Amino acid sequence: MSNVNPNIVLKTKDLSIGYISRKKSIVITSHINIKLKKGELVGLIGANGIGKSTLLRTLTNVQPKLHGSISVNNKPLEDYSNIELAKVLSLVLTEPLASKNLTVFELVALGRQPYTNWVGNLSKEDLFIVNKALEQTNIIDLKTKKCFELSDGQLQKVMIARALAQDTDLIILDEPTTHLDMYHKAYILKLLQKLAKETNKTILFSSHEIDLAIQLCDKLIVMTKDKVVSDKPCNLIEKGTFNTLFPKDLIEFDETTGSFRVKK
Predict the structure, then answer these.
(1) How many Cβ atoms sit within 10 Å of the Cβ of residue 264?
(2) Residue 87 CB coordination number (10 Å)
(3) What is the pLDDT of residues 90-114, one digit of tens each?
């Protein structure tokens, strides 16, 4: 009997993350064991500076792991070539666009690069996938606009559409709600929830919007100084995991409402 689970898209075993200098390895956290399944919306949360971005960079092969294993679709991450990895994993960063002079359609179409020939010509199938991604993110009416004309919220939807056009099993987003107001933070996370369910893609995002993540995510990865735990939000509440997320002198977690509040 094989113990390979086709429903597991991303898996880590005893993963350690950090930095390698000339003299030594600097470990940020270790013994990270997570399993992300198809169609799950997963939030990565923790205090500032705890290592969320480092974990995402390691999971996407941007930064080397220190120890342990990472597998995507039951294949070790290091066994993927760059072009192979681009067909199973797409990444949405908070970094500014190199060129905002592209139209929305042109930017979303860049998601097809792993599949186009060296000339970059789009086939009928590519065009269909790009237009479908525009529809799924509700930005079909923006397709001819230049990216510099867009609001932050609109641009974030365009970046998500580009990841959808890349047609990967796993989409990873680093702080997708940065610089957005409360309405658009909720809108983007609700959109990600909808996309995970409708497309059966696994979507992992880091966020400081912990209250929203608790309400919307199928699973949360919680990073603290001592450990990294992963479970359903309701189970994490029962275990008291959120009580240890921040110092108790100012903020406390209310288990009855499932949200944080400032101490009076």
Answers:
(1) 3
(2) 15
(3) 999 877 777 789 999 999 999 999 9
